[in-house]
Automatic annotation (TrEMBL):
Enzyme class name: hydrolase
Record protein name field: beta-glucosidase
GO molecular function, one term: hydrolase activity
Family: Belongs to the glycosyl hydrolase 3 family.
Catalytic activity: Hydrolysis of terminal, non-reducing beta-D-glucosyl residues with release of beta-D-glucose
Chain ranges passing through the membrane: none
Signal among keywords: yes
Length: 789
């Protein structure tokens, strides 16, 4: 009887929708419980869900991103087209700031701020006023290291943010990114990325904070707290999306490659950042990864999404698919014969929304009617999506304030913050005393290299007209005593006619003969100089997410790409002092530069203030203090080379060709001053299982300049029921000290800091001894013993 009543009710809703004018019904629905902002969210969701047809529910589980022309006339919103597209509403719109899905994308990839806001408001107005239930849409945008939109603030890539070792500063960066996203209409941010950077061949490592689970956890928490803040969501915040659950280290470093690992490795490493962020920051959304994990694609992986994500880690939010993640079950994994099968698999696994277009989920109503998917599964997914819309206040405040947003574009405070972040992300890897250069002393500097002029941002970036490249920043800071001459040296790829590094662009690699001419010209410029500033590294066309076979971004070598090594050799041959700056998205095996350059700086992609920030370091206005969040190998053959290996991985100690020691170790970075660090001190040398111990470390600036040091705390379980890593980062703090200043840094080692999955796969602290290490990096350490009884 109840089923018959439910069917009758749904028939009544449908027939009413057909009989009454749409606008009149939207107004009539205003008295419904779901329209009451004072009602509890769960009650509003329940009421609205009870009023929805199956088609309206399915629409909430879908997105539009790459087919925006379906509701546009030219580049403007078309009410007439929208009536055909949004018959049943829509769950979310992807990336309103970009022009994907329009003819305009070929010449201009991003809308101006005002254009974006006008588009978002037009879509919301149509959904609110001209659909049966008036349900507004979520809008999602990319915020990996700043909002991916025209003239939004562009921070250093996540590897650069990880290099700051400063979660408070990183939180400030993401607060700005989240605020800019919300002002332009986004309610969902597709970040942070919590993957571990374990294979630098993988082009997507530029999106990752670090190779270390603890450091990634701290940066992930900072990102979520910055963008999303405390729940319920405030008016200037966005829901975050943790991703990618779980990438692991894809086979051969190739995007979408399988990630085969043991359950122990999964729990001890790749799940740790997700577990910590879920526990401490309550993220709203998680995005499954493209690849197979333990043999099952994540978008069809019930064990991962439900048993691990919800039951073990306690995730309460929604699962939104990666772009094409559901249909990849057909095209990439051959696990589903068609979109119907893919939708069934994804719904069973627990994927609540399909992005970018909801191609498979368009079939949900028919699959429910055919008995292949229970409607209860649809209701559960839609409930989570609607809850986000109510929490974001979209039913009460669906529209944007354009004048307010325009006032915030390229604000002075935003530029000051991004410059500070870039300064703190720079890592000094070598310095024989050449740096800093005195800007008042007469000197000729030859700025040479393919990455010296254009500001390079890396993946998931937009454009900002006020961005400053390295050459421009150095020229602005040099003063009258210094003369600067520039030579390109080589090209890595030929310039694109549009002037943009578009994600799916097929790279046109530079010609070797033409580069030989450029190298010869650079040598002449270098011979006239006193110092060479050599700026080499990557461009987005060779280090990026490999979108398709025509646009690769993964590598089988970690040497400088193309003819850059020839340029390096030519500069070394001049005999001139060399300051080398790497602008790149992955660790590179720059052995020659490490050996022959007088100074070497890792910059990563530095963001929009990169030129100014580097000039501040070059001329000594700022003292570098960044530390590597990832190990630098000497060769691709050294991989994997992450620092927290098991002891058995180091027994052989060498290959035939060389020792498998890193070019630069995890946590490494120099300063213009010198620091002295004490051995760690324990409040007590013996604790009981389950107790916490306080650890103190003294750090003193023994040099002549104010500078930053990062005190790093590591733990080693000396004897355990299963092998443990030789070192595990368990705490860090970046401190600024004046010359002669001393500070005591305090850490708390709680049971979680000492616990692990034992031989029976129970999470425990085993009695025994632990070695507690402290130092400025993962190699130069002092230690003390702790006994757990």
């Amino acid at each position: 009887m109840a089923d018959r009543l439910a069917v009758t009710r749904r028939m009544f809703i449908v027939s009413t929708a057909l009989a009454m004018p749409v606008v009149a019904m939207a107004e009539g629905a205003g008295k419904a419980l779901y329209r009451n902002p004072k009602a509890r969210i769960e009650d509003r969701v329940r009421d609205l869900l009870s009023r929805m047809t199956l088609e309206e529910k399915a629409a909430q589980m879908r997105s539009i991103a790459y087919t925006k022309s379906r509701f546009l006339e030219g580049d403007n919103f078309s009410p007439e087209k929208a009536k055909q597209v949004f018959v049943n509403g829509i769950g979310q719109i992807g990336n309103p700031s970009d022009t994907n899905g329009t003819a305009r994308v070929a010449k201009d990839a991003y809308r101006a701020v005002g254009e974006t806001i006008d588009l978002v408001n037009a879509i919301q107005r149509h959904l609110v006023d001209n659909t049966r239930l008036g349900i507004p849409a979520l809008f999602h945008e990319e915020t990996a290291h700043g909002l991916k939109a025209r003239d939004a603030t562009i921070f250093p890539i996540p590897l650069g943010l990880g290099s700051t070792w400063d979660p408070k500063l990183v939180q400030q960066a993401y607060e700005l990114a989240g605020r800019e996203a919300r002002m332009r209409g986004a309610t969902v941010a597709l970040s942070p990325v919590l993957d571990l950077a374990r294979d630098p061949r993988f082009g997507r490592v530029e999106e990752f904070f670090s190779e270390d689970p603890y450091l990634v956890s701290q940066m992930g928490i900072a990102s979520v707290r910055g963008q999303q803040g405390q729940r319920p969501l405030a008016a200037d915040k966005v829901f975050v999306t943790l991703k990618h659950f779980i990438h692991g280290a894809p086979e051969s470093g190739l995007n979408i490659g399988p990630a085969d690992m043991s359950e122990r490795t999964l729990r001890e490493n790749f799940l740790v950042p997700f577990a910590q962020v879920i526990k401490k920051a309550d993220p709203a959304v998680i995005m499954p990864s493209y690849n197979e994990l333990e043999g099952v694609p994540s978008h069809a992986n019930y064990q991962l999404l439900q048993r691990t994500g919800r039951e073990r880690l306690g995730f309460r939010g929604a699962y939104f698919s990666d772009y094409g993640g559901v249909t990849n079950l057909v095209t990439h994994h051959q696990m589903a014969a068609n979109d119907d099968d893919a939708a069934v698999l994804a719904i069973h696994a627990g994927v609540d929304a399909e992005m970018p277009e909801g191609q498979a989920y368009a079939r949900l109503p028919e699959l429910v009617r055919a008995g292949r998917i229970p409607e209860a599964s649809i209701d559960a997914a839609v409930s989570r999506i609607l809850a986000l819309k109510f929490e974001a206040g979209l039913f009460e405040n669906p529209y944007l304030n354009k004048s307010r947003a325009l006032r915030q574009v390229n604000a002075p405070a935003s530029k000051a913050l991004v410059r500070k972040v870039a300064q703190k992300s720079l890592v000094l890897l070598k310095n024989d005393g050449l740096l800093p250069i005195d800007p008042a002393k007469p000197r000729k500097i030859a700025v040479v290299g393919p990455n010296a002029v254009e500001p390079l941002f890396g993946g998931y970036s937009s454009v900002n007209a006020q961005a400053v490249g390295i050459l421009a920043g150095v020229k602005a800071a040099a003063g009258h005593a210094i003369s600067i001459e520039y030579a390109e040296g080589v090209q890595i790829v030929k310039p694109d006619p549009t002037g943009q590094h578009l994600p799916a662009r097929a790279a046109r690699y530079a010609d070797a003969a033409e580069n030989a001419v450029r190298i010869a010209q650079a040598v002449e410029v270098a011979k006239r100089s006193d110092v060479i500033l050599l700026v080499v590294g990557d461009v987005p066309e060779i280090t990026r997410e490999a979108i398709h076979a025509g646009a690769p971004g993964d590598r089988n070598s970690l040497n400088l790409f193309g003819d850059q090594d020839a340029l390096v050799d030519a500069m070394i041959a001049t005999g001139k002092p060399i300051v080398a700056l790497l602008i790149n998205g992955r660790p590179l095996a720059v052995n020659r530069l490490a050996d022959k350059a007088n100074a070497l700086v890792e910059g990563w992609y530095l963001g929009q203030e990169g030129g100014n920030a580097f000039a501040d370091i070059l001329f000594g206005k700022v003292n570098p203090g960044g530390k590597l969040p990832i190990t630098f190998p000497r060769s691709v053959g050294d991989l994997p080379i992450f620092y927290n290996k098991h002891s058995s991985a180091r027994i052989g100690q060498r290959y035939v060709e060389a020792k498998p020691t890193p070019l630069f170790p995890f946590g490494y970075g120099l300063s213009y001053t010198t620091f002295e660090m004490s051995a760690p001190r324990l409040a007590k040398s013996t604790i009981a299982v389950g107790e916490t111990v306080i650890v103190e470390v003294d750090v003193t600036n023994a040099g002549q300049r104010t500078g930053d040091e990062v005190v790093q705390l590591y733990v080693r379980d000396d004897v355990s029921s299963v092998p443990r890593p030789v070192l595990e980062l368990r705490g860090f703090e970046r401190v600024t000290l004046r010359p002669g200043e001393k500070r005591t840094v305090q850490f708390s080692l709680d049971p979680d800091s000492l616990a692990f999955w034992n031989i029976d796969m129970n999470y425990v602290v085993e009695p025994g001894t632990f070695t507690i290490h402290a130092g400025p990096n993962s190699v130069d350490l002092k230690s003390v013993k702790l006994t757990v009884a």
